TrEMBL record:
Protein name: FAD-binding oxidoreductase
Taxonomic path: Bacteria, Bacillati, Bacillota, Bacilli, Lactobacillales
Necessary cofactors: FAD
InterPro entries: BBE, FAD-bd_PCMH, FAD-bd_PCMH-like_sf, FAD-bd_PCMH_sub1, FAD-bd_PCMH_sub2, FAD-linked_Oxidoreductase, Oxid_FAD_bind_N
FAD-binding PCMH-type domain sequence ranges: 36-206
Keywords: FAD, Flavoprotein, Oxidoreductase
The UniProt record lists the keyword Metal-binding: no
Alphabetized SUPFAM superfamilies for the sequence: FAD-binding/transporter-associated domain-like (SSF56176)
Gene3D superfamilies: 3.30.465.10, 3.40.462.20, Uridine Diphospho-n-acetylenolpyruvylglucosamine Reductase, domain 2
Family: Belongs to the oxygen-dependent FAD-linked oxidoreductase family.
Organism: Carnobacterium antarcticum
Amino acid sequence: MKTFDEEYLAAVVNGEVYTETNKKYENLRMVKNTVFDPHPLAIVKCLNEADVVQTIRYCREQELAFTVKCTGHSAAGFSAGDEEIVIDISSLDQVEVDGSTNLVTVGGGANWFKVGEALVPYDLAITSGDMGGVGVGGNAQGSGMGFFIRKYGVTTGRIRKVRVVDATGKILVASETEHSDLFWAIRGGAGNFGVVTEFVFEAHPGGTVLAGNLFYQYDPQLIQQLTDYILHAPDELNGTLSFTTAPFTSQMPEQYKGQLVIALMVCIKGSPAAGNQMIKELKKYSGFLFDEVDFVPYIKLFPPIDPSGNTLMLNFYTNELPDELISELNQELVTTGDPQLVTQVKVLGGYFGRVSNEAMAYSQRENNYLVIMRKAFGSAEEALLANEDWKDKWEQLRKYANGIDINFLGIGQLNELEMMYKPANLKKLKELKKQYDPANCFIGVLSIQ
Ligand SMILES: Cc1cc2nc3c(=O)[nH]c(=O)nc-3n(C[C@H](O)[C@H](O)[C@H](O)COP(=O)(O)OP(=O)(O)OC[C@H]3O[C@@H](n4cnc5c(N)ncnc54)[C@H](O)[C@@H]3O)c2cc1C
């Protein structure tokens, strides 16, 4: 490492450079998962693509390590950038909609709420996730498990073109017809190939959806019945089950508060009559308590909140939900009723499962379910103490897993590339990494080498 010259870097970028001596540094250095306490060497708040180019060039010349940060939502702390230069791209957040082609140009630092808002007048949407504050940059390059997963697939699959600043500071455009190998790698490569300064997505119908939670008494057999119903339903029905202790929402009737419940969040885009029929059928299952399902604007489903906290997480893909798995998954919840612990099962299949694993780097298409466990702790110390237990938990659950999702990685799952990609995809990704980032400069990511 050579020397860091703050004044020089500040002079060659349009944005600001923040170091420990600046008041704003304290706020800017943090990521959303406060288990991490990073102290970057400096934070470069980029205003445009040229700033990204200049910062990368400077870091390469001075042999300084750098990390790209969009909104800092990575639960695994990828964008934390301790003792590094953090390239903060959150101001690259422009959104332009072409209503005639449904193509949407989005800055690499935008969040999904901003994109969703811009799409409202066009009755369009881009499936992304359940929180508006989550960044497009990381989310769309991992997977993107949204409310339309069975109808329109992962967010990654909606990308049509990208502008990328590579590890030398060069700007590349990648699509099916230009740098198609890079385009393949970006769609699942989790930020290993460059800084995406601009995405072009193809939007799909949005507008009004039939959506909301249906609540049931907790019953392991019902979990199997509901997931099976959704898996075999038309693609229009998307559903995620959460197992948690009520109150889950402010509308929860008093008599159910404190009980263990199954909250089935549905989002249906299709004929209103067919949607109503599906809800009617879902309400017939024994254990149904009440529901909040209604016709709502899609934008209402992912509020612009930006949660932070001391979070531990783990996830895995699986094809079956046998009794033993459900019992192991929910053992702690059933015995403690801890409201901070939430386990989710996202039901896949539909269009998601009909896309080939070879189409892009993301390759978990044959799986029926994505299981996610997360817990918020009172302090970072408490979370770090519990981390060993979570590693054990993952070791116990591993036997059920066919794969792991990059977006919901837990701290104990970082070195499991073989679980994140199919063998042929991983081989190709490693070859492309050597071609596009031979010096492994993009290190604030899941490391593909
Ligand atoms: C509260 C919460 C809810 C969530 N809900 C969902 C959900 O419903 N569905 C889902 O799929 N995921 C969900 N996630 C996971 C989320 O998608 C991932 O954590 C994702 O990586 C966050 O992206 P980010 O850009 O906001 O985060 P960051 O921490 O800023 O970045 C994550 C990674 O991506 C890299 N990166 C970011 N932007 C770029 C870019 N433009 N170019 C190159 N590299 C870049 C960073 O270097 C880092 O390695 C959720 C996470 C949280 C905390």
